[in-house]
UniProtKB/TrEMBL annotation:
Residues 1-22 form the signal peptide. It comes from Pseudonocardia alaniniphila. It is a lipid-anchor. Belongs to the BMP lipoprotein family. This is BMP family ABC transporter substrate-binding protein. Pfam families: Bmp (PF02608). The keyword Cell membrane applies. It is found in: Cell membrane.
């Protein structure tokens, strides 16, 4: 596991330099290093493959009988059709219907509105619990405050929440991910694919969860190419969740990065990412998707040719596994974190556009799993 430690440590040292966020909507900030906007990047070699660095998903548990469950799903902003985070959660529910005997008639889906009040979020969760849905799955960290109240009111209802671990109640199960690890890998891909030595990141809302994506992406890119420039933009500031549902703004911001010389852009912006893809398509450059394998999403078929990979965040697996565990009456089978080690995050290969660099990507993946590379969860100022 420790072979090549010196080389990997050197790679890590350069990789730990990460970008500070652009604070104003539409204003890009280069990720340190100065660098050049043209020509080939100077690239480091991939770390030597350490032993014991393979992903080791837990053995698949037998499918439980979920025919007796009523499952409520409270979507984040955008709901089904966002081609990203919510669709992944919906796919997990659909799989439970298909494979666990869960009756579709015994499911209910409700969707959050942009910038709604905590009372509105609580009312949605309370409605599902009062109508007998058990378990109830809250999709997104924005439900945390409301869930803390409603779960305490309904101690006999099991709840799960995606992307939050702050609600410490016996009937609440967190479903959290190592987004920074998957983002590191697509940062490596971007640095290996860029021809301008300049890439971009578009975040939906400037808050800690999305900054995990940014931190990993920049660290991965700079592990490969220490002088690479990374333009970082957020569509809205913390508290304004419209950044996850504004494709037009995503297109404008991505166009600005492309005009500035970026030729690969990674988004973590929910439905707004559709606008990022449109901008990249118009410019004839490359994009990196998020959450789902966006190359294969039917609603994105017109831009699939520019999506070279996606950072896979297996919300679908987490939702399915949670329903399966709830049906079996044993939630202890769930991992504490869905990370690279359990295949909870990763990168997509659909379209074949990263087939030529999978050896390097998998070397970095192994180094992260083995602990040789530690991925940052917060950006550091340049």
């Amino acid at each position: 596991m420790r072979r090549g430690f010196v080389l990997a440590a050197a790679v890590l040292t350069s990789a730990l330099v990460v970008v500070g966020c652009a604070r104003d909507t539409g204003t890009s900030q280069p990720a340190g290093g100065g660098g050049t906007n043209a020509g080939a990047c100077a690239r480091n070699s991939a770390p030597s493959a350490p032993g014991g660095g393979s992903a080791s998903p837990a053995p698949a548990l037998p499918n439980a009988d979920a025919s007796g469950l009523k499952v409520g799903l409270a979507f984040d902003i955008g709901g089904r059709g966002d081609a990203s985070f919510n669709d992944a959660a919906g796919a997990g529910l659909d799989r439970a219907i298909s494979e666990l005997g869960l009756a579709k008639a015994n499911t209910k889906e409700l969707t959050a509105g942009p910038n709604e009040s905590e009372d509105a979020a609580a009312t949605r969760l309370r409605q599902l619990a009062s109508e007998g849905y058990n378990p109830v799955i809250a999709v997104g960290f924005k439900y945390a405050t409301a869930l803390k109240t409603v779960a305490a009111e309904s101690p006999n209802t099991q709840f799960a929440i995606v992307d939050d671990s702050s609600v410490e109640l016996p009937n609440v199960t967190p479903l959290v991910f190592a987004e920074e690890q998957g983002s590191f890998l697509v940062g490596v891909a971007a640095a290996l694919k860029t021809q301008t030595c300049k890439i971009g990141f578009v975040g939906g809302v400037e808050q800690p969860l999305i900054q995990k994506f940014q931190a990993g992406y920049v660290q991965g890119a700079k592990a490969v190419a220490p002088d690479i420039q990374v333009d970082v933009d957020y569509l809205t500031p913390a508290g304004d969740f419209t950044g996850f549902s504004d494709p037009a703004k995503g297109q404008v911001v991505a166009t600005g990065q492309l005009d500035g010389g970026a030729d690969v852009i990674y988004h973590a912006a929910g439905a707004s990412g559709q606008g990022v893809f449109q901008a990249v398509k118009a410019a004839g450059k490359s994009a990196i998707g998020v959450d789902s394998d966006q190359h294969n999403i039917p609603g994105l078929s017109d831009v699939k040719d520019v999506i070279i990979t996606s950072m896979l965040k297996r919300v679908d697996v987490a939702v399915f596994d949670y329903i399966n565990a709830a049906a079996a009456g044993n939630l202890s089978t769930l991992p504490d974190t869905f990370d690279l080690k359990v295949d909870g995050v990763g990168y997509a290969t659909s379209g074949g556009k990263v087939d030529d660099i999978t050896t390097q990507l998998d070397a970095y993946k192994a180094a992260i799993i083995s602990g040789v590379i530690s991925v940052e969860t917060t950006p550091t100022s340049s």
